[in-house]
Amino acid sequence: QRVAIAACLARDADFYFLDEITPYLDIGQRMIVARLIRELADDDAAERSMLVVEHDLAILDLLADTLHVAYGEPGAYGVVTDPKSVRNGINEYLKGYLDNENMRIRPSAITFEEHAPRVASRSQTLVEYPDLSKSYGDGEFELHVEGGEINRSEVLGVVGPNGIGKSTLAKLFTGDLEPDSGTLDFALDISYKPQYIDIDQPMRVDAFLSSITDQFGSSYWNTEIAQPLQLDRVMEQNLADLSGGERQRVAIAACLSDDADLYLLDEPSAHLDVEQRVRATTAIRRYAENHDATVMVIDHDIYMIDLLADRLMVFDGEPAERGRASPPQEMRDGMNEFLADLDITFRRDERTGRPRINKPGSQLDSKQKRDGEYYYSG
Q: What superfamily would CATH give domain 2-104?
């Protein structure tokens, strides 16, 4: 992805069209790309124009001057609006109503609310794990995990750069990998959605999902899983014929449909558009709350982590060389640590409550950094 972006931007052109710059990039890499595009666009001598299509609203909010909203019916028709200010365009899209067009594009608004951790998650421990280490090859990569605990009925967010060991930790927990030091003797049933989805089985989606749960097709299953993930459109398709986003939604449904003590989802936002990400987030959060389920979510979408997580596990280190996982901590402490390492600050939009990246060097950015509050001042 980074090579493709570099190849596009390296060309001498008057107009640059970049279609989805964030897939496969961690949030640090996304910030680097966004800043580079912003710098190139601000070069008055070059007189460049750029059009960026993107589903990560935090990044789009940071780099764009104006914004077009696209809406319609997938596979049927699409409409692109006239330019809007970035803030108004994103807020109208989230609200589901376009003011100038007098057009409702969604029956309900997408909202962002600060939520308190559930009471049960504050006192009851599901599992404790010791200090762990895992290395690949002859010291090519080393992961060190500080011991901690996962609480019952919580959603634990996991954040950090690519190539830092997050998926390795997931595989240690599931038993797909053995640690070099430390012992994991989990007596847990774990439902795992891996980062890379391999479900190319010669069967239909409905047959695949019905093989996982007896609840398939019930009113409750349809309401809690199938409808939020918009699975009705793909039920009669073969797994091998699904697009990336369709495959992702089916994999999330399969993970949540299993009866487990711990649900572990690795990058559930990948290949999903903005609305699908919010729907997936809603399904995961609702399932966790209604079932008192314990969930771990590894993701680079800061909106998804903000909406989902009760606590946070932060990874740092040197990608592809060494990684360190800190114990789970309270959301504000974890996000402050994570965002400080990225040298970015976040605020909440006063109208929608959505996370917004402060413009680097702005008055609010500088104040939050002085105060050590990288995650939502005030």
A: P-loop containing nucleotide triphosphate hydrolases (3.40.50.300)
